[in-house]
Write a structure and sequence with these properties.
CATH topology of the largest domain: FAD/NAD(P)-binding domain
Radius of gyration: 23 Å
Distance between the termini: 66 Å
Helix content: 25-40%
CATH superfamily of the largest domain: FAD/NAD(P)-binding domain
Shape: globular
Number of strands: 22
CATH class of the largest domain: Alpha Beta
Strand content: 25-35%
Number of helices: 14
Structural class: alpha/beta
Number of domains: 3
Length: about 475
């Protein structure tokens, strides 16, 4: 150990990096985590998952008061928007959670090395002018917003996801470029608060990667809520003059161009791995064509002693996937067996209602063989009915021969919480019958999962 400063040095303190650091320290390894931000937690806690949920939750209350849901239940109010206060509660949530990680670092004796790390050799990095040597180095540098070629983000008129969280006033008209998770979540926030929102998506459906039934239903739900959807449409240019942006759009398949005007444009076309500035060439590590660092199943790179986790490696760019890999990489480094089941990683869209899924889509499952599908509408669920939440369904896809559950998809007000049941079931190799014959509390939204499982074999009761 004398020659090394640390057993493990982790580059990045996002959900993957900080979890890896804490787990490594728990396992008795001398651990450091490099982070250049003023606060720990990476994109997720500072400008991603956490602040966006704070704004989504607050805007749901405003929307319920402004658009009649509360009045429907006998609570008649006229809301007044205090946007600075809404932003303040967002910032408070971030402050508390990032401070919580700093506390956990101290508790577990993890050293926070403030600055940006650059490899000088396979076991050494330079941070803020100092060199640190470690037996194991974990790259957990996450991802950043993918720019749209030719479109300049000024964080005033043209914003990315970070800027969209901090708008000082509600836009009159917001154009969201990209109909994926981030665009729909942040577009939903500002629509609820009074903006006219137009979503421009290159593909012919929203939410790429989700089950097609979910994607089609999403379009119906967002249209009903007042969003304008321009599907199968690409943006070919954005020009800004004063406080107004003019977008040039045309059909993705080709056709006549037209223009749209907006006082706010959100560029939300995806994220890309953060590998620039790491000095990967100094250790002979070359990212793949998508800019990702390839690893083996144990999260080792091709360079001995160097590991990688989270958004910077292949797979879905999700905080919980990074967390699982953070625990696994620490346990692997400590000589244990870190386990991640990449086939059972849920995805959630935190709009209203929520959209969630785990496992295969129906199309993916069909490619493997014969399947059975059970669906149950939330309209027929007792709790959804009493809560005035009629939108959505649960869909379960099972192997026709073995009845093993291959995928579960849900649209419901609490779909993100409901999907955890499906994850546990699939982790244990459950059949649809296993779920169907498991008692679920009544009345709960989760009964829809039981009924969908019953529907797989034609036994659903309430449809």
């Amino acid at each position: 150990m004398a020659d090394y400063d640390y057993d493990v040095l982790i580059i990045g303190s996002g959900p993957g990096g900080y979890v890896a650091a804490i787990r490594a320290a728990q396992l008795g390894l001398k651990t450091a985590c490099v982070e250049g931000r003023e606060t720990l937690g990476g994109t997720c806690l500072n400008v991603g998952c956490i602040p966006s949920k704070a704004m989504l939750h607050a805007s749901e209350y405003f929307d319920a008061a402004a658009n009649g849901t509360m009045a429907l239940m006998g609570v008649e109010v006229t809301p007044k928007l205090n946007l600075p206060k809404m932003h303040a509660q967002r910032l408070d949530a971030v402050k508390q959670l990032t401070g919580g990680i700093a506390f956990l670092f101290k508790k577990n004796k993890v050293d926070w090395l403030k600055g940006h790390a650059t490899f000088t050799s396979a076991d050494t990095v330079e941070v803020a002018g100092k060199s640190f040597r470690a037996k194991n180095i974990v790259i957990a540098t996450g991802s950043s917003v993918t720019p749209l070629p030719g479109v300049m983000v000024d964080q005033k008129v043209v914003v990315d996801s970070t800027g969209a969280l901090e708008l000082p006033k509600v836009p009159k008209r917001m154009v969201v470029i990209g109909g994926g998770v981030i665009g729909l979540e942040l577009g939903s926030v500002w629509r609820r608060l009074g903006a006219e929102v137009i979503v421009v998506e290159f593909l012919d459906q929203l939410l790429p990667g989700m089950d097609m039934d979910v994607r089609k239903e999403a379009a119906k739900i967002f249209k009903k809520q007042g969003m304008t959807l321009r599907l199968g449409t690409k943006v070919t240019g954005v020009t800004v003059k004063g406080d107004t942006a003019t977008l040039t759009v045309e059909p993705s398949a080709g056709g006549a161009a037209e223009t749209l005007e907006a006082d706010c444009v959100l560029v939300s076309i995806g994220r890309r791995p953060n590998t620039e500035g790491l000095g990967l060439d100094a250790i002979g590590l070359t990212p793949n064509a998508r800019g990702q660092i390839e690893t083996g199943p144990d999260l080792r790179t091709t360079v001995p002693g160097v590991w990688a986790i989270g958004d910077v490696i292949p797979g879905p760019m999700l905080a919980h996937k990074a967390e699982d890999e953070g625990i696994a990489v620490a346990e692997n480094i400590a000589g244990q067996t870190g386990i991640i089941n990449h086939a059972v990683i849920p995805g959630v869209v935190y709009t209203w209602p929520e959209f969630a899924g785990v496992g295969m889509t129906e199309d993916q499952a069909k490619e493997l063989g014969e399947i059975k599908v059970g669906k149950f509408p939330m309209l027929a669920n007792s709790r959804a009915k009493t809560n005035h939440e009629p939108d959505g369904f649960v869909k379960i896809i099972a192997d026709a021969k073995t009845d093993k559950v291959l995928g579960v998809w849900a649209i419901a007000s609490v779909a993100g919480t409901m999907i955890a049941e499906a994850c546990v079931a699939m982790e244990f190799g459950a059949t649809s019958e296993d779920i169907a014959y498991t008692c679920h509390a009544h009345p709960t939204h989760s009964e829809a999962i039981k009924e969908a499982a019953m529907a797989v074999t034609g036994k659903a009761i309430h449809i």
